[in-house]
Design brief:
This protein is mostly helical. The protein is built from 8 helices and no strands.
Length: about 180
């Protein structure tokens, strides 16, 4: 769980954005742009594309600020989900060879906690949780989440049946939930 005071402050910024407050948008951008850019770079691997999508994400957040609800999650999660989805959409709309080999990610995943020192604890928990998975399960999680590939794209890349990919994904997610203490 994040810091409740930060979450409340973020929600207040989004509420101000819904009323047309550009300073609130600027504050939210300052807080989240580096984190979101890092997420998008993991998926797109091209800084110019990631920056372009980042702009789109904040434009969309500005336009849809009134639809944000604290019951559905934190502002950080709301923005991250939008960023990840838009980056995957961009990646799929312009297919090309994967720029970063899977081996470059290593067993602890592609995340760099130095981008956000407050997330170092989360990075450690995720790294530890990642170790409960088999290498095959780790591979489908990295390809699906960090590379943004669909199950059929993963199956094609690995030369494995789609059912196998889905089984590995399901098993990996169950293990992650258990390791992270989620139900």
């Amino acid at each position: 769980m994040g810091d409740p005071e930060v979450e409340q402050a973020d929600a207040a910024l989004v509420a101000r954005m819904a009323r047309g407050d550009r300073a609130a948008l600027s504050a939210l951008y300052s807080r989240y742009a580096p984190k979101l850019l890092a997420v998008m770079l993991q998926i797109l691997h091209v800084r110019a594309e990631a920056e372009d999508v980042l702009h789109d994400v904040f434009l969309e957040a500005w336009q849809k600020a009134a639809t944000y609800s604290t019951e559905r999650g934190t502002v950080g999660a709301w923005l991250t989900l939008r960023a990840r989805s838009r980056a995957i959409d961009r990646r799929r709309s312009a297919p090309r060879a994967r720029a970063v080999p899977l081996e470059a990610f290593g067993a602890d995943g592609p995340s760099d906690p130095s981008v956000d020192p407050a997330r170092i604890g989360d990075h450690r928990r995720l790294s530890k949780a990642f170790t409960v998975m088999t290498p095959d399960e780790q591979e489908v999680i990295v390809l699906g989440y960090f590379e943004g590939l669909s199950s059929s794209e993963i199956a094609e890349k690995l030369g494995a049946p789609i059912g196998t990919v889905k089984s590995r994904t399901r098993s990996a997610l169950q293990k992650l939930r258990g390791a992270l203490g989620e139900t």
